[in-house]
Specification:
With about 290 residues, this protein is of the alpha/beta class. It contains twelve helices and eight strands. It has helices spanning about 45-55, 60-65, 80-90, 95-105, 110-115, 120-135, 145-155, 165-175, 180-185, 195-200, 215-225, 240-250, and strands at about 10, 15-20, 30, 35-40, 230-235, 255-260, 265, 275-280. The strands form three sheets. It has a four-stranded mixed sheet, covered by helices on one side. The longest helix is centred in the middle third of the chain and has 17 residues, at about 120-135.
Length: about 290
Amino acid sequence: MHLFSTQLVLRCPTGARHKAFLSCSYILRNNVHNRSHKRTKVSSRVAKQLKLTQTHKKPVSLAGVIKPSVLPSQSPNTSTDDTVALDFAGPLSKADILAVLNQFFRQPEVKSLAMQQGMEHSLFLQAFSEFRKYCATISPLPSELHIKLSDIINGYGTATDLFPFFLQHAKVMYPHLDYVKDLRHASNLTSPAQLFPLARAKQRKIIIHAGPTNSGKTYHAFQRYLESKSGIYCGPLKMLAVELAQKSNDVGIACDLVTGEERNFADPEGLMPAAHISCTVEMTDREAY
C-alpha cells in the first residue's frame, strides 16, 4: 500500500487557467496475479473543485452599470401649447394611455429599432418602464405627445408611432445613447488596416527580416540603414534609439535622435535635419513616413 500526493492543473471552459493544489490520497493495491493497480479512493475535494471550475460568470449588463437620470414628476414647461392640446384632443384616461403603451411594448419592430439605437434588451426594459411611468404620472403631458396618444387611441395611428417620443425620453435618461454610433466606430477593430487609409494609399515595399535570437537581424538591418540615402529607425525603447543614433554618428552618418524626452540633432545649430533619424516608435512622423 502506497500513499502519494499529486498536483492538478484545472482549466475552465472559458479558457482561464486555474491552478488547484489538491492533495489526493490514493490507495494502490498491488495485484500479484495481473500486476494491475486499482484506485479505490478519490478525494471528494477533487470532484468539488472540478464542479466549481465549470461555473460561468454572467456578463455585466449595460443597464446595471449606467444609472438613469432623474426626471421631474411634473412637466417642466407648462405652456399654452399644452392647454391647446388638451382643448383640441380632449383629456386622456390613464387606462387608455397604459393600453397604448403596452401595445407599443409588444411590437417586434420597436425592439428592433431600440437595438439599432444601442439599447440592449435589459436597457430597453428599464427605459420603457421609466417611459411608461412618465406618461402615466406627468401632468399635463407635452402637447405633441398628448396629441399623438389621442390619435392612436382614436385609431388614427399605430403604437409604433410613439417610438420617437420613447427614444427622446430614453436619451434624456441615458445620455450615452447619443454617442453609441461613435463608440461602436471607435471600438470596431474587425478591420484594423482600414483605420489608416493614408498610410495604405502609399506605394511601399515592405521587407520582413525574421530569424532566431542572436542571428544578426538587427546588425544586417543597421547595415542597410547606413547604406541607404535616408532612413528612420523606430525603436521600442529610448535606450535602443540612443544606441543606434550614436553608432550612426560615430561612423560618419549624420543621424538625429527624437524621443519623447529629448531631440538631439546632428547639425550643431539644428537648422539642417539629417536624412537619417533614430526615434522611439511613438515619435514617428506618420505624415512623412
